[in-house]
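[Meeting: bench + compute handoff]

Bench side (C.D.) handed over the final construct sequence. Compute side (W.E.) agreed to return the predicted structure before the next meeting so the bench team could plan truncations. Sequence as handed over:
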Amino acid sequence: MKKIIEQEVIRLVKTHNTNSSFEIVDAENILVLQELLGSINGYYVQILPF
């Protein structure tokens, strides 16, 4: 699994010519929300198109 994630990161960096996560999520149309989570380390929600 670690190898797959590393390969995906390398692909994204090459595709977008940047290693800035904010530039990559912007180019990929990924919505990033910053919220106070308390003791929760993080979460994600996948929204599927209709």
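W.E. noted at the follow-up: Residues 1-50 form one domain. C.D. will use this when planning the next construct.
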